[in-house]
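User: Fold this, then the next.

Assistant: Folding the first:
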Amino acid sequence: MVRPIDEAVYKTAFERIEELLPMVSDETPIYYSKAIELKIMSDIVIKYEEAHFPIGNSPFI
């Protein structure tokens, strides 16, 4: 069973993304450890935001 992503995990993942972005570019091989970590952290942020900030509920749409 996968437990839900809480706000603390979300914030930690978001901060780590900011640290990783300067280390990874479009030319970075996908098997590079920092690229893999960036993908995992991005997936965490996306999953949290989809659950807590669904686009369908946006006042701008």
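Now the next one, as you asked:
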Amino acid sequence: MNKSTIRELTFKLLYSLEVQKSFEDEDIELYFEDTELESEQIKNQIKEDVKNIIANNDELIKQISNNLKSDWKLERISKVNIALLKLAIYEMINKKVPYKVVINEVVELAKKYGEDSSSSFINGVLATVVKENDLA
């Protein structure tokens, strides 16, 4: 299983938790009951990333809020976009994954799972995050 597929599965779990508004271990385990994974190692990697994203939720939300255009409010953003932004910001800042890789893959996920405008919206927010955090 490649990194892109693992990123997509991580996004799907984050999105599921966002929709349920529940971030408990039981909810994470339920997700894995319905998802066939090649190895326990991949499952553990996804769990670790999701738990770290949950643990850093306040900082991630702050990063998103601070990098929205002035006429946008956090409440206006879809759950798909929130999950994608949290994942991308976490990977760029905390895991030090190169921003070009993260943005490219998350924009592709936005095209696949989001609304028509999701990819350009996410690209714009993440470009600002990169500048604000001096990640370039």
